[in-house]
Amino acid sequence: MKKINLKNDQLQIYKRENSKVWQIKLKLPRQKAIRKSSGSKILEEAKKTALGIYDEILNTKKYAFDINKSYNYKKIHLVESKKLNKKEIECFLDESEKYIHFNKKTIKKSNLLEGRSIFNLFFEDSTRTRTSFEVAAKRLGADLMNVALKDSSINKGETLLDTMTTINSMSPDVLIVRHPEEGISKKISKTVKACVINAGDGSHEHPTQALLDALTIKKKFRKFKGLKIAICGDIKHSRVARSNIEILSTLGCSINVIGPKSLIPKDIQKLGVNIFYNMKNGLKKCDIVMMLRIQKERIVGIHMPNEKEYFKKFGLDYKKLAYAKKNAFVMHPGPMNRGVEIDSKLADDITRSLIQEQVTMGVAVRMACLEILINNRDKYGK
Ligand code: CP
User: Fold this and answer.
1) Which of 74, 242, 289, 310 is deepest in the core (most CB within 10 A)?
2) For residue range 124-135, what is the model confidence (pLDDT) as tens digits?
3) Pairing of strands 288-291, 228-232
C-alpha cells in the first residue's frame, strides 16, 4: 500500500495495491478517523481534495463552541502546575492542537468567546505572555482589556484585593494576573467570580509557559516518555523552571537542572530532578536544553559573577551544546540576554533553536486555556 502523510499523522492519502483511486484518512485528536475516497487517480488532485476536506472540517465542526463539552480539566482557574495530573495536562495540549492549525489560516477569527470579557492584569513587565493572551482572546472573539496598572489607583494606596474586587464588579469572565508576589493568583481566585489564570507569580509558577513548552516539545518529538531535559541557569528565581519541572516530569521526562550553586535551591531535589553544577556533565544525553535568564530583579544578597565569566561557565554556545545529544534542541522562555546565558547565533539558528516556535505555541495554548476555563465556568459555575 502506498501512503503519504500530509499533515503529520493527522491527514494521510493512501492507495491499496488493487485500487487505482487515492483514499483519504483524517484522524484528529480524540476523534474517530474519517475515511473518504478522493475520487481521483492523480496524486496532486487527491492531495488537493484531502487538504480541502481537512480545512473544511477544522473550519466548521472543530470551532463550534460546545457548551456541553466535557474536558479532563474540570476547574475554572489555572493558578499552578504542581497539582495538574497527566490527563489534565494532556487535555490542554490536545485542545491546543486545533488552534495551531487555526493560527495558520489567513483569516484568524472565531466567535467562540464572543461577548466574553477578559482582563490582562500585569503588575510586572511582559511582552510574550501579555501579548499572546491578547492575541488569543481577540482571535476567539472576546473583548480584551489591558488594565494599565502603572497608572491605576494602586498608586493612591488602594490594596490589590480592593482593585480585584472593583474589577470583579464589572463582571469579567477571565482575569489574567502577573504579579511579583508568590501565590497571589490563588488568593485572588478565592475572592472573585471570574476564572483566574496565573501569568507568573514571583519566583513561584508560570503554568501557561510550561504548557506551551510542553506543546513545543510534543510537536518536535511526538512523545515525552524517556526524554531528558536540561534546565539551565537561575533555577532559584525561575517560575518557568518550577512549572516546567512539574509538568514535564508528570508527562514522563527526566529533568537535569544545571547552574551555579548560588542559583540552585537545595530543596529542588524534592521535585525529583538531578542537580549539576557544570554544563559538561549536566548536558550529557539531553534531548532539550532549556536556558533561563538570570532574574536580576529578584536577586538580593548573592554575589553574581560578571556576565563574561557567567557565559564562559554556563552560557550555551555550540561547543557546550555538543555535550548534549547530537540533534538536541535549544529552548528559552524569553526574554533572552544574548551573550549572557545564550550565544546570539545559536539562539537564531532555526535548525537548533525552538525559541520562536515556543512563542507560536504560546498563542495556541492560551486559546485552549481560555476555551477550557470559560467552558468549565459555564458548565460548573463558581
Ligand atoms: N516567557 C515570558 O513570560 O515572557 P514575558 O515576560 O515577555 O511575558
Assistant:
1) 289
2) 999 999 999 999
3) parallel
Distance in Å, CA 35 to ligand 1 centroid: 42
Cell of 221: 518529538
Tell which one of 123, 129, 132 to mutate to probe ligand 1, the residue whose CB is within 8 A of the most ligand atoms: 129
User: What are residue 17's phi and psi, to 5 degrees?
Assistant: -55, -40
Q: How would you class 266 by CB atoms within 10 Å of its CB: exposed for 0-12, middle for 13-18, buried for 19 or more?
A: exposed
Q: Does the pLDDT at position 59 exceed 70?
A: no
Gap between the Cα atoms of 191 and 193, Å rounded: 7
Region of residue 39 (phi > 0: left; psi between -120 and 50: alpha; otherwise: beta): left
C-beta separation of 230 from 289 below 8 A? yes
Q: Ligand 1: which of 122, 146, 209 to mutate, judged by most atoms within 8 Å of the beta carbon?
A: 209
The C-alpha cell at 309 is 565569566
In sequence order, which residues have a C-beta less than 8 Å from that of residue 35 and are 6 or more positions away? Answer: 23, 24, 25, 26
Write the pLDDT tens digit of every residue in 293-344: 998 787 777 777 789 999 999 999 999 999 999 999 999 999 999 999 999 9
What pTM does this model have?
Answer: 0.83
What is the chain's alpha carbon radius of gyration, rounded to the nearest angstrom?
Answer: 22
Residue 62 pLDDT > 50: no
Q: So what's the pLDDT on residue 55?
A: 79
Phi, psi of 27 (to 5 degrees): -130, 100
In the chain, which ranges are continuous DSSP H helix?
A: 43-59, 86-102, 128-139, 160-168, 184-189, 207-221, 239-250, 279-282, 307-314, 318-321, 344-347, 355-380
Whether 296 and 249 have beta carbons less than 8 Å apart is answered as no
List residues near ligand 1 (CB under 6 A): 126-129, 200, 206, 209, 333-335
